[in-house]
Structure prediction request, 100 residues.
Amino acid sequence: MPQSITRFGNLGQVFREGESELLNEVARVTILYEDLRLELGELRVINERRDAKGPMDGDDFRVAYFMRRALVTLIGISSRAYDAAQNRRFQTANYLPPGS
Prediction:
């Protein structure tokens, strides 16, 4: 599994105190992505525990809950990504690949 990097900073400065709708969409997608990561992580834990110790009471309900939450989160990510793509600033941004 890839390692993550935690960075610290003033989010008000990073996201321009909420003045940029594009940065607001980026923040929303970021939060949803973290939610998805946690939900999928919990599904992995349930699966690994089942493999090691066999099924436990409540596993089916927990799997159903986290699957439902992950699907809702994916729909949210899709919606937010679409909203970001409709942003005029996003559409006019010039991407320069590294080394350009």
